[in-house]
Specification:
Number of domains: 2
Strand order of the largest sheet: 4-3-6-1-2-5
CATH topology of the largest domain: Rossmann fold
Shape: globular
Number of strands: 12
Length: 216
């Protein structure tokens, strides 16, 4: 697996818990939806992060949630511009199929930082026929919302009413039927993915129309 060094350009703080770490792009090639393993140079420590930036961006962005007990995410947050990191990859198969890229209707369902691959999708393919359903606790966690067409984006907030819908993504989906021919991409915690998959199956979506990536 290819592993190469990249230089930190900046760290962009979004919330007290979440930030974007931006690296130089170099000659790194990937498909939207893939992930990498970021490692500290000369150490075996590493973590998997989905690529947040698009294929036409001249940098590599990764959306990171700082874990209180996680030394690695804290290490990343406090890196200074010019620091080096090893990037191993790309890896993974959570990529858009040809049918979706050609305009078939798609639903992108995420929780928290699981929005990362979807952000990469829309930055890379601006003409997709999609809707985004993003579940977070509070409205300030609408990471990258400005990159999505506001008519196609719905924010579900479970601990405040500051979003477009007050409640979890599962509540919204139980109240709003999804057409069976929609291709759905799910990224987030395993509990959400299991619950949403069950709801979609009850609406008649075939297994091949439910694509999943367990994010944490």
């Amino acid at each position: 697996m290819k592993r190469q060094k990249h230089i930190v350009q900046k760290v962009i703080n979004l919330t007290p818990e979440t930030f974007i770490i931006r690296l130089d792009r170099g000659d790194f090639q990937f498909e939207p939806g893939q992930y990498v393993v970021i490692r500290i140079p000369d150490q075996n420590k590493g973590r998997e992060y989905s690529i947040y930036s698009g294929i036409n961006d001249d940098y590599l962005d990764f959306l990171v949630r700082e874990i209180p007990e996680g030394g690695f995410s804290r290490y990343l947050r406090h890196l200074l511009p010019g620091s080096e990191l090893d990037v191993e990859g790309p890896k993974g198969y959570f990529i858009l199929d040809e049918k979706t890229r050609k305009g078939h209707k798609a639903m992108l369902i995420a929780t928290g930082t699981g929005i990362s691959p979807f952000h990469s999708y829309v930055r890379s393919y601006p003409d997709l026929n999609f809707r985004v359903l993003h579940g977070v606790h509070f409205a300030d966690e609408a990471y990258g919302r400005e990159s999505f067409n506001p008519d196609n984006y719905l924010l579900c907030t479970s601990r405040s009413d500051g979003g477009d819908y007050f409640g979890r993504v599962t509540y919204y989906l139980k109240e709003n039927k999804i057409d069976a021919d929609t291709i759905c991409y799910l990224c987030g915690n395993s509990e959400m993915i299991d619950e949403v998959s069950t709801i979609l199956e009850k609406y008649g979506l075939p297994p091949e129309n439910i694509r999943t990536e367990v994010f944490f």
